[in-house]
Design brief:
Elements lengths: L14 E4 L3 E2 L23 E2 L5 E2 L20 E2 L20 H10 L4 E2 L12 E2 L8 E6 L2 E3 L4 E4 L8 E8 L2 E3 L2 E4 L3 E7 L3 E3 L16 E7 L3 E3 L13 E8 L9 E3 L13 E4 L2 H5 L18
Parallel strand pairs: 1-3, 1-20, 2-4, 4-5, 6-8, 7-9, 8-11, 9-12, 10-13, 11-14, 12-15, 14-16, 15-17, 16-18, 17-19, 18-20
Length: 301
């Protein structure tokens, strides 16, 4: 009998987030539900923590046949509850998109820097990020391949002077190593096209939700791709944990999150892709991402 293995055999991987909200017009991933015994990954829920709503816009939420739901309160918005398609604050504009940030950078006359001197001697599009990179806005014409091994941490700022990094790529970004943030620092990677995280980034400890392999804001104009073997005949893929935010289809012309990993040995009872929302990153967001504010004063009747 298919889908029976001492309870539940979930044949699909899934995405889960903590203290966050999800907008997914596809209606959600199939969830494994609660299998017998300890379920440390809370596989019944698309979202864990005290906050968040799952928004499927004008489509119906569907978490599969195993009793999955949005979160413990099952907070969801879809066509069955009168939901409608997502509408940005600025019409037809996602504020993390490459074009929006670049336009704001140029309007504010912020210096655009080259990433080449901080690529460990490599020539773009390949870049092994070095620890000496100063804060600022970096613009890459064409694709960016983040290479090397181990982990790169963006340098720390101070309590009174955050180190904020914006990396704008007029093409696609491929990430082949871990990327972290030291204290009082933030980073936004914004690609005009796709962002791909290679299969070597992540952990084989599938219950680990506190080791973050990527930190920051990752915005893809088209697809955010979590790459892997996606083949149980080859073996387990790695679980990817991100602390921050992930945005796909920021150009609003089509695209989404593509999860191409399987945790085969545990029947996908834990998420292959896990995101923890970071309020700290919102508090130190660079001004070029914020909605412009205006003060009007009448000087004559």
């Amino acid at each position: 009998m298919q889908n029976l293995n001492f309870g539940i055999n979930n044949t699909s991987s899934y995405t889960q987030c903590e203290n966050c909200g999800i907008y997914d017009p596809e209606g959600g991933d199939p969830l494994p539900g609660n299998p017998p015994g300890p379920n440390v990954c809370e596989g019944r829920y698309a979202m864990i923590g005290a906050f968040g709503t799952f928004n499927a816009g004008g489509n119906a939420v569907d978490f599969g046949p195993f009793g999955g739901q949005a979160n413990s309160a099952n907070r969801k918005v879809d066509i069955l509850s009168g939901g409608s398609d997502f509408a940005p604050v600025i019409p037809r504009t996602i504020r993390t998109s490459y074009s929006y940030i670049l336009a704001n950078v140029r309007q504010a006359k912020v210096t655009e820097q080259s990433l080449s001197p901080y690529c460990g001697g490599q020539a773009l599009p390949n870049c092994d990020l070095s620890g000496s990179i100063p804060e600022g806005v970096y613009v890459v014409n064409g694709n960016l391949n983040i290479t090397g091994s181990g982990r790169f941490n963006f340098p720390a700022g101070t309590a009174s002077n955050n180190n904020n990094y914006i990396i704008l790529v007029d093409g696609s970004i491929t990430i082949g190593k871990e990327i972290g943030l030291n204290a009082n620092s933030s980073v936004i990677f914004s690609a005009k096209d796709d962002i791909t995280v290679l299969g070597n980034v992540g952990t084989l400890t599938f219950t680990d939700s506190t080791s973050y392999h990527l930190q920051g804001v990752y915005s893809a104009g088209r697809n955010f791709i979590v790459a892997g073997n996606n083949n149980c005949g080859v073996g387990d893929d790695r679980r990817l944990n991100i602390e921050g935010n992930v945005i796909a289809n920021s150009r609003l012309t089509g695209g989404g999150i593509q999860l191409n990993r399987l945790l085969c040995s545990i029947n996908n009872q834990c998420p292959a892709f896990y995101v923890k929302h970071s309020p700290r990153l919102l508090l130190i967001t660079p001004s070029v991402l914020r909605v412009p504010s205006f003060v009007w004063k009448e000087v004559a009747p």
